Amino acid sequence: MTQRSVVRTWLTRAGFTAGVSMLVMGAATAQPVKGLYIAGEGGASFNQDQTARLSPVFPSGRDHYQAGVTGIGSLGYGLGNGFRVEVEGNYRNNRLQQFRSSTFPSSVGGRQQGYGVMANALFDMDIGKSWVFPYFGAGIGYGWQAMNTYVHAPNGAFDQHVGGTTGNFAYQGIFGLSFPVPWVVGLSATAEYRFYTLMGPNGHHATATGIYGGWDKTKEFGVSSGNRDTRTDFNHSLMLGLRYEFNPAPPPPKPVAAPMPIPGPAPTRTYLVFFDWDSAELSTRAKAVVAAAARNSTSVQVTHIEVSGYTDTSAAHPGHRGEAYNMALSQRRANTVKEELVRDGVAAGLITTQGFGESHPLVVTAANTREPQNRRVEIDFK
């Protein structure tokens, strides 16, 4: 598989993973990282061609590497305002694919490995989406480059082995996306790109046998040793990983539903109009009650209005004669209230009247007892 096809494969995988994360993590919410966290990532490592210069007489050229693997583990601390600091350990492994030199064609083998310790500073961006947080950062540290490669010229004319480990200062740039995992508080999936370089040149021990040339010179067949300098060491990585916060901020409280408004008191549908003893005349207070009933009849649904008259149990002539008198008095009281309602604008066709005499008292009393609460008319909206 060529390096270009490997790049396409890893980009496809990263894009697919990010898309799935957007779908399954849409309900997740997160706060800026605060406190201790750990993270781990793995993915593809891509070395740019590395310029190699050999001395005293080895051929110079460029190392071309296959896509390899990389892994990173880090321990960090979030400040709660978007900024994070962390310490990481990293590892990269790429197999040598071709040694590009104008001296002679060759076949190659072996690999280059890199590992290092870095201190990073990063910033998480809040873009208003609870399911994704872009971040970027940079790091400095120290890295090591370990070589174990072979270059073979045709017919045994030249065989070269480069080995050993060298170290130097390193720096890197970081850009990534984190996706909070909704079902595990504090856990986030990450998709990340890193550019990493080891400052150079970085020298390795080289040995060679055969007829070899360098700097356009030729030597007799034999064994020679010298130094091989790698002048450029630029690496690009695409990785997927997980990050876990040990003390995540609690999720924001769910919005409390506004309390249902308390309904106001229902409009009055029953009115009481009281009368003096042995009277069907409306007092000033009674007229005000009837007027209020007339006004409110337009603010509630009314199909008809029942006006019911009553008396107390007192009578000038006790017995059936007194009961009959009180029945007639209660009817007169109901008629009086109806007439007042009509004067206040209520349609007469809506109103029915009925006298009940001494029955249905508000206050139960003995016979022939004067009780103001029982001398009344009830107006009921139906």
From TrEMBL:
CDD domains: OmpA_C-like
InterPro entries in alphabetical order: Bact_OuterMem_StrucFunc, OMP/PagP_B-barrel, OmpA-like, OmpA-like_sf
Record domain OmpA-like: where: 262-382
GO CC annotation terms, alphabetical: membrane
Endpoints of the signal sequence: 1-30
Transmembrane segments: none
Keywords: Membrane, Signal
A UniProt-annotated Pfam family: OmpA
Record-linked PROSITE patterns: OMPA_2 (PS51123)
PANTHER family for this protein: LIPOPROTEIN YIAD-RELATED, STATOR ELEMENT OF FLAGELLAR MOTOR COMPLEX
Name of the featured protein: OmpA-like domain-containing protein
Lineage: Bacteria, Pseudomonadati, Pseudomonadota, Alphaproteobacteria, Acetobacterales
